[in-house]
Amino acid sequence: MLQYTSGSTSDPKGVVITHGNLAHQFELNRRLLGLGLETRGVFWLPPYHDFGLISVILSTLTGNSELTMMSPLSFIQRPALWFDVMNRVRATHTAAPNFAYDLAVHKTTTEQRAQWDLSSLKVVMSAAEPVREETKRRFLEAFAVTGLRPEAFCPAYGLAEHTVAVTIFGRSTLRVDRHQLEMERRAVPADGADSQVLVSCGELTGDVDVRIVDPELCVGLSDGQVGEIWVDSPSKAAGYWGSPDESRATFAARLTGMNDGHSYLRTGDLGFLHDGELYVCGRVKDLLIVAGRNIHPQDVEDTLRNCHRAIRPGDRGLRHRCR
C-alpha cells in the first residue's frame, strides 16, 4: 500500500509499504505492547494517519484484541468522553499525541476524574509529536485519583518511512545541561536553572537497529552525542513512490568506512542515546543556528508557552487599532 507522509516539513510523499513491513510492525507492537485476547483498546485516532491505522487499529485487530473506536471530533468536542468510554469498558490500552493529554487536564474536572476508574490501563501511548515532560507530569498528577499507574504512560517514536514505530515505552526522563546541548550538541546530565528535561521515546531492542550519525560526515556517534537518527529493520519501507533518487538517498544510507552492505533509513530527526534509550531532540532541517547555538523550534515554543498563561499553542495575536 501507499502511506503518505504528514507533510509537516515538506510536501507529502507516498511511502511504499510492503506486506513484510506490516507483518513485522504488527509483531513488534503485539510483543512490546502486550496485545492479546485480554486487550481492550479504546481509541479516537483517525484511520487516515499511520498512528491510527497501523499502530492502533490493525495492530490491535491482528492481536485478536477487542477494539472500541471513537471519532476524533467527538474527543475534541468533549475530551471527557474518551475517559467515560475507557472507564465503562475497563480499557487496557489507549494512545494519543501529546496535545491530547494537555487537553485532558484542562478540559476535565476534578469531580469527573474522581468518578473514573482507569486502574485497568496498561498502556497509555504518547506519540506522533514531541512528548513534553511537563505534559506527562501534569497528566499523571491530575489523573492519579483515577488509579492510573505512572508506569502505564508510554512515550514512543516512529515515522511513516519505517511503517510507524521505531521505539516504544520510554521509561526515563533526563535532565541535561542546556548550554552543552545547544553549543556542543552533547547531552550532559545536569541539575540547576540552566538545564532542561527530555523524555525518552523508548528502549532499544533487537528488533530495530538504531544509530546516531553525524548527518554531514555519515559517521556513527557515541552515546550522549546528538546526531541524525538512522534506523534499519524489516519495518523499513521500500522507498518513495515514483522517486528513485530520493529513495536511494533516504532509504539506502551507509556509514562512512563501512563496506558490509548494510544500509539505513535517514529519518531527518535529531536525537541521542543514553543508557539504552532514545531521546528525540528535533528535526535536522528545522535546526536554528543562532550565534553558534543549536536551537530547536519546539524548545522556543515550549519557552513561549510557559512564559505567560495567556499564550496557548495554536493561538495567534491580533492587534486592533482603536479610533
TrEMBL record:
InterPro entries given in the database record: AMP-bd_C_sf, AMP-binding_CS, AMP-dep_synth/lig_dom, ANL_N_sf
Annotated AMP-dependent synthetase/ligase domain residues: 2-241
PROSITE patterns for the chain: AMP_BINDING
Highest taxon, organism lineage: Bacteria
Pfam families: AMP-binding
Family to which this protein belongs: Belongs to the ATP-dependent AMP-binding enzyme family.
Protein name (record): AMP-dependent synthetase/ligase domain-containing protein
Organism annotation: Mycobacterium kansasii
